[in-house]
Amino acid sequence: MPTTPIRRKITKGRVVRTPDGFEVGQSVHFVEVSPRTWIMTLEPVEEAERLAAALPSPPTSPWSEAMARVKGVAHTAGRRSRKAGTVELDLKTSDTEALAIATIVTPKRRARSGRAVVR
Amino acid sequence: MPWYDDASVYYGSPADVLAQGDIVVAATGAFEGDSGDVSPASPLYFGEERLVQVWLGSTGTLPEAPSLGLRARWGIAMVLPHACALEKEFNERVAALMASGHEQMEAERLANDDVSLDRFIALAPLCSYGELSVERHAGVRTGARLGAFPVPENVPSGIPPAWVDLRRISTTDVTLVDVEPLRLAALSSLAQAHLQAALAKHWAYRDLSRYDELQRAFGQRIIAVVPISTGKKMRVGFTLEDGTQLVFDAADKPLPAPSAPARRPRPHRH
Question: ipTM for the complex?
Answer without folding.
Answer: 0.70
